[in-house]
TrEMBL record:
PANTHER family: BETA-LACTAMASE FAMILY PROTEIN (AFU_ORTHOLOGUE AFUA_5G07500) (PTHR43283:SF3), BETA-LACTAMASE-RELATED (PTHR43283). Keywords: Hydrolase. This is Serine hydrolase domain-containing protein. Residues 24-403 form the Beta-lactamase-related domain. Pfam families: Beta-lactamase (PF00144). It comes from Amycolatopsis ultiminotia.
Amino acid sequence: MATEVQVEADPAEAGFDGARLRRIDRHFARYVDDGLLPGFLAVVSRHGRIVHVASHGARDVEAGAPVETDTIWRIFSMSKPITSVAAMTFAEEGLIDLTDPIARWLPEFAEPRVYVKGSALDPVTEPATEPIRLWHLLTHTAGLTYGFHHTHPVDARYRAAGYEGGTPPGLDLAGCSRAWAGFPLVFQPGSEWNYSVATDVLGRLVEVLAGTPLDEALAERVFGPLGMSDTGFHTEDRERLAALYVPDPKTKQIVRNDMFGATGTKRPDSFSGGGGLVSTAADYHRFTQMLLRRGELDGVRVLSPHTVDLMTANHLPGNVDLESYGRPLFTEMPYDGFGFGLGFSVLLDAAKAKTLSTPGEYAWGGAASTAFWVDPDEDLTVAFYTQLLPSSSYPIRHQLRQLVYQALVD
């Protein structure tokens, strides 16, 4: 399978103004030239063919190594849609249902308790009024959290146990799942939305359903069928793996961060289905094309069309957006005008979101400022790759939408 992305069709044939598309190149090149990004790669596809590839800068500034079309990137939370797809393959086989309590397979979640009040050291809790179900994990409504949120006493419990920017050394995913089950939930399951380790727990559920470690399960159900040969929880090809950077707090200039950059360089102790994968633009392009084609690519079907339609519908009760149902914390997408499906954000109202796009667009991004979206109405996919933590540093995703849709002229 090809490891590089290349233009496959004239932009005009796909309804784009080529000169306007090149605004993407110029805009983000300024980020690089100003020292705010190390480098980037953007891919725009319509009607199943790539119409624009933009790149500039370095995958490793210190080594003078340029961004290449086969560069390997840490995709962090862009792992979540992949793990979600894998989980739904088991639902399609009748092995699990969206409403099933996960404790049937993960007994550590048999009696969850919910935070009511008190400190991180001495919280008052109450029993959950209903079990955590599969759909709660897929929609981040289980009541789980992330240690890096720094807004709730339960977040502090996660951090104290070693769950802030990763997981404790030597602990596998089964051990992590048991630890997370031992923390109080921040709300009753299904009552709110909170970005969380839910997809990591989902990855553990996939392991149990598959009877294999998560890396093998994803290879069998997603990577192998789609020919995603460069995607996994680490890569041996260190030369192609981009270095990771953070902005200097004072100057905003990029600073190399090899501590976080160690992600993807060796086999991890715990496979993070929520944030542990590395991939290439070519591999993730195949994943998005499978989604756009409603579950099938090159004659290989991963999911049924109906399953993809269900996953990319808004599952927040009452069809509300994240602003109405979510907690005002960090996430990889805005809250206004966006709902959430089974592993994806879903655009409900472009005017409320103040963005150029089409209702029904589904998307997600990663902590190192990577992002993708799929627009079924326009038969469009877009992906952006760089390696800058955190993704909230600059409005890259909003600007990319603006630049793509202003070039779509048919």
